[in-house]
Sequence to fold (143 residues):
Amino acid sequence: MKLSNDEMKCISLFESLTGAVVKDCIVMDEMNAIAFVVKEGEMGRAIGKGGSTIERARHNFGSKQLYVVEDASDAKDFVVNLLRPVPISNLNIQEKNNEKTAIVSVDSRDRGAAIGKGGERIKMNRMLLMRHFGMDLRLVTKD
Fold:
């Protein structure tokens, strides 16, 4: 995994502001957003009491939307972390022609939260899942 200079600068700033160890970062200029993957067990440190730490970080990153995801060694756990706090009703990993896809079922009422405004959350989640586990993400809804 290669990081750009911008991504390395963002990691350095985020770590200094939150004290959380960052494992990965994706700067998504087209969405005016930055995604951070923090080390397992560091999510509380990144958010802070009552969200104070993440708010301070958001202030320092200006108008950029910040996404913070906790890393996981298992693909299924990582998918759950990507979609948190959206409840997942079913999660299967399928493999066809040497390509893996995580198929996630969510309630139709939670579809908007899982996709995000303008589809930015699902796009970010797909990028991170591909980068960390080499698999695609497909969202299906159930009534």
